[in-house]
Amino acid sequence: MATDNVYVLFYLLAFLCIQPNVCDGALTSGCIPAERSALLEFKRGLKDPTNRLSSWVGEDCCKWEGVTCSNHTGHVVKLDLHNPHPFSDFGGEPYNNWTLGGELRPSLLGLKHLKYLDLSMNDFGGINIPEFMGSFHRLQYLNLSRAGLGGLLPHQLGNLSNLQYLDLYNDLDPNFVVPVREFSIGDALWISHLSSLKHLNLKSVNFQNGTHWLEALNMLPSIVEIYLSLCEIGSVPLSLPHVNFTSLSVLDLSDNLIDSTIPSWLSNISGLEHLDLSENDLQGNIPPTFGNLASLKELNLAFNPLQGGIPTSFKNLCKLQNLILPGINISQDLLGLDESFSGCIKMSLESLDLSGTNISGQLPEWLLQLRKLKVLNLGWNLISGPIPLSLGQLASLQELYLGVNQLNETIPESVGRLSQLVTLDLQHNNLEGVMSEAHFGNLTELKYLCLSSNSLALKVESNWLPPFRLESLQMDSCKLGPEFPAWLQSQINIFEIDMSNAGIIDAMPNWFWSLISTAEYVSVSGNQISGHVPNLLHLNNLDWLDLSSNYFEGPLPYFPPGMYFLDLSNNLFSGTISLDIMNMPYLIYLSLSKNNLSGQIPFSVCQLQALQVLDLSKNTLSGVLPNCWNNSSGIVIMDFSSNNISGVIPKSICSMASLQSLHLNNNSLYEELSLSLKDCTKLVILDAGHNDLKGEIPTWIGESLTSLRFLNLRSNMLVGDIPPNLSRLSSLQFLDLADNELSGTIPRSFGNFTAMKVIENFSSSTTDQIRYKEHMFITTKGNTLSYDESLLLMNILDLSDNNLFGGVPEEVTGLFGLFSLNLSGNHFTGEIIENISKLQQLESLDLSRNNFSGTIPSGLVALTYLAHLNLSYNNLSGEIPLGNQLLTFTDPSIYIGNPGLCGFPLNQSCKDSETTQGQSNSDDGDENEMIWFYTSMALGFVVGFWAVWGTLILNKNWNLYYFRFIDNMFDKVYVFTILKVSMIRKRCCSQQE
Predict the structure, then answer these.
(1) Residue 991: its pLDDT value, please?
(2) Is 234 within 8 Å of 209 (Cβ atoms)?
(3) Which Pfam families does this chain map to (predicted)?
């Protein structure tokens, strides 16, 4: 009987031991008390702004948020506290609110049976990973990615011999909402102790000082996936004594600094399916031994300066599904792929991406024999010629990217046979012609259509019903008009639509505003669309709206609060700017320029906390500028030009530390330049011309605004001398002080403007803002025009129409990059500087209406770029020099008012000069003539003398005949003379008698 009782007791204990919690010391249902205490202590070290862990109360910790217990033992085996709200660029608040922070207390070690730990997507303030993390010996999953941790990875993590998944990816994107501290790694041999590891993600961990990392990875027998992108890895061994990656399927070494050839040992990883070596500096050819990688499905060698084509051995890659080679410096008929793809790969390839590889030539016909191809991406290349008619043979094609090439001729109708096509991208080519219903006949799956920046026209019947339902339509610069396309009404799922510059001349149909109820991006700019815009508060998804350059009229409508881009410029909107239009907290870009808006600028504009660009120019706004900018810290560009704004420049305007461009020109602002502008230390453009500003030019401009590149104070009432310290502005390339009442001389220090001495293409004047083009009205070459794209090339010095006097300092000729120099309308004296020929880039020179004297320097002939010249109304004299560009100036008015000037193109010839020159030439001619006369006489005498006497001396017979002839002639002359004398005497005697 006692024995039976023992058996009963034994079975009872055995039964109790298999019940949850009993054998482990728990007397009641729920978690282990010691583990509950460990969790509560861990919670005390956390910061929980939204009380995410509010469920962590009561006895049963297994029911707490993020806690999972074993069904058999009751021990906590999983702790998942990752942030459930992913970060997004324009919706960061939920992410911020749900991040945990604080400290990671070692009380967590009380969870001795923990297998799964996830603290990702939180913000622990950049603290190091605690060393105790290496003490969870049963841990199989550890995810600390994007958790706000940093520092050197602790080698104690190598103690986690049961770990199968390790993710320490640290997002270093500066736009990421959590400030990130960089992870780094030293001696990586500790990784080799993770003998059970299958998945390793160390993306963005700094490997610059890391050692033995490849050796350690090669010792992991079970590793399947390795992600080491953005790790600043500088080199990879070209060979390994023994390749042990028997299980490796994925290897990602992209976005590093590897500057060698492709390592040959990669070819020995027989099970490799995904290899990403993109965005390195890999050189040389693709190893032919890659043909041994029979399991390879995706190969990414993008943006590497490789040479040569894909080796013929690639025909062995029968399982290849995705080949990505963008950015490779390869040309000539798609790398000569014909031979490489003539094997079984031609029958298995499903995705081919060679975008951005500088491929040239035409699309080969054989490429279209890849019948299983689903993705073909050859965008961003130099491919020319037509699209082959056989394109329609790719029956399985789902995505076609041929954008940003040099394709020409028409789009073949065979594209309409691609019944599986989802994406068609042919943007930015030279395609032309008409597309009709036939081009879209069987495209029932089409969702993304991009034909922008071509010369295409879409002509379909007015009742055409497309077979597709688009989600994205990009057809800017294609002709869709003149009528508004009625077929668009059927595209009820659209979220992106761009029909800018589409030749539409029509009223906006009412159904369009309902159609875009699901849209995020809408642009119909650059057409001639008319009508009123209704209130659009119902467009909850809309964040980008561009209606610019049309004929929309009426009052400004109300817009949804979630928008971040709004451009209504160059329309006919009228009325005032209501307070409610500023109820858009995420708005980054706002342009209401070139409308008929009136009234005052509402103070609510200062409440747009995210605003970077504000353009209210070219309206009839009045009143004063609001003085409420203290909390508007993000604005970079402000444009209030060409309105009727009066008053002073508000003191708070430079409380915006980010302000770089300020346009106030063509208003009625008065008093002096506000001293508060001294705090705009990042200002690049200050345009305050055509106002009523008074006083002197402040010296603090040259001391504080050191980033200034464009300064326009034209047409104000400024007085006094020009401050010499303006020359401290080393970046200044544009200075316009014209039409003021300035006096004194040009400071010699003006020769120190560094930016005016160089010839270069300047970078953007302000930070790259969304689609904003800087523009200014500039007076040069005798005209005032608005400049935008070419503004950055303008090197201009304009001091015209002031009371400046004295001579022009020689130092000005050192501004070699000067494009335009205007000193007209002053009282300058002396001669025009001869060294003005040093200004080789000068296109416009105006020295008119001064007191310059002397001659026009001949050095002007050397200014070969000169297109505009005005020297009128001075005291210049002498002949106008000719040559090069000066011969093209046929308008005599550019020299008028200089009575002493003569020569082309004036009617006044230089007579005195001609007479003097003629006399000089005559005297010179006479003198030369006499010299030649006497020289020829001497030569003639010598020649004649020796011709006679030399002959007589040398020939005796001639000598005898000659003297006989002379004697005979002498006798005859003597007889004739005697007879004549005798006859004369007889006559004289007879007359006397």
Answers:
(1) 46
(2) no
(3) LRR_1, LRR_14, LRR_6, LRR_8, LRRNT_2
